[in-house]
Amino acid sequence: MRDFFQRLWHALAQRFRNYYEATRYSPKRSRVPGARQDAKVDLSPGTRKELVRKSRYYEKNSAILNRAADLFEAYTVGETGILIIPASSDSGWNLRAKERAHEWAKNPDLGSFLSWPLIQGILARTWFFDGEIFVHLTRGPNGNGRMDRKIQLIEEHRVETPPELASEEGKTVIDGIEIDKNGRPLNYFVREGDGKEAIYVRVPAAEMRHIFEPSRTGQYRGLPLAHAVLVDCNDLDDLELLEQQAAKENAQIANVIKSQSGEIPPGLLRQIRRGGTIMDSQGNTLADERIGGYREALPGATVALKPGEDFAQHRSDRPSVATVDYWDYKRGKICAGIGIPKLLIFPNTRGQGTIARAEFDVANTFFRARSAVLAEAVVEIWLWQTEWAIRTDLRLADAPADWKNVNTRAPRSVNVDVGRNSAAMLAELQAGASNYDLIFAPLGLDPVEQLTRSAFYARLIRDLADQYKVTPAEISNLAGEAIKISADAEMLAHATDPSAADDEEQQTEEQPA
User: Fold this and answer.
1) DSSP symbol at 20
2) How much of the chain, in percent, has pLDDT values that exceed 90?
3) Of 58, 84, 4, 51, whose CA–CA distance to 407 is shortest?
4) pLDDT reported for residue 463
5) What are the φ and ψ backbone dihedral angles of 178, each rounded to 5 degrees?
6) Which ranges in 17-150 belong to alpha helices (H)?
7) Is residue 345 within 8 Å of residue 336, measured between CB atoms?
8) Which helix (H) or strand (E) holds 313?
9) Residue 31: alpha-carbon gap to chain centroid
10) pTM
């Protein structure tokens, strides 16, 4: 016992001799709750389900989170999805593999007719709101009477621990995921059906792709991207609702009458509203005729208050400037918690061109990092279906040894000044400081495909020039003239509409001496 108190005293003495203010107690500050524990304990099944429940609510009712999810989907997978470009040593096989993958992408889902690019959009959006999504690698008919490899999307609420294994929760099963002695996933328990008819299917980990981004080691399930600001979303809803109620009440009161006799009784007011005449015991009219006169002359509800003979029209100044500024602070906090700049979610925000470029560069890095998580899963699915095609499709039977070599292309980068960046990239290409991969990758395009198209149109221009007895330059210059006309029209629009030039830089950069 003596040793225990000595260790306790030593620990307390060490704590109070340090100079980290965050570790020192002060009655002037509120207590910060929390504990140091494993991620699987921090993110218990109940905690995670409640976070997802609130996140899904705001998917239906929050314009801010919906706008953020739209941007997340647009800049992580884009309209065409993450492109997979075969990069083996056999260029002919690469083209055939790409053609086969394009055929598979038309209808890869077991339970729908959705295309692969559209499914990728669902993956991104579900990851945003739920924090994760599962892809079951399975088989099904391909529409030609033959079996093919298919995928099946599984939402997070369908992966849970079976009731009969509740005693193993936190030991061999973590929130629907069965693990081995090293902590690696072995199986996923997928619930099919509801209530008493629910059954749990054990899906091997080799057949499941779990798309999420853990923030800690030992974290088995995902978190909604807005998990840190769900309380702020709730606060903002409450503030706007209360302010709206106050504004409605203020709008109903137009005129205020004050009398020397004091406030009119509520019962009398109700009879006045019904249009009745109230008499006292001497036969005098109690309902003040002035109230009726005011009602006829002035619209809106009329109330009687005390004391003093006075009349005024009610005016509402809500919401106040301070309230609107606080709302703006809350919106900025929500955007920061998600990781997407406020300038993207609220594009009417004013700012200098240099500030906008900095914000967009940060956003681009954020989207690229998230896109890389999805790209890893997309590549695994591509390799999985291509491996099957090599064994069943004669076009790919002669696969080279390095057939698994692929390149990925994320969607177009966030860009604030397309013209300026394009000119810089072309200058770097001519100087040999860049290459076509670096030129087309930020655009989400395949350089081989784009150069092939350029060669096709170059040959087409030469053939047309020979056919119509003109020079190739005369044909190619037509495209340049069209671009110039479009640019001139845009400049004219900026000149006639001052608001269109809000994104221009407001300061000049200093020139070197």
Assistant:
1) -
2) 47
3) 84
4) 84
5) -80, 130
6) 39-42, 45-61, 63-76, 91-104, 116-130
7) no
8) strand 310-313
9) 32
10) 0.73
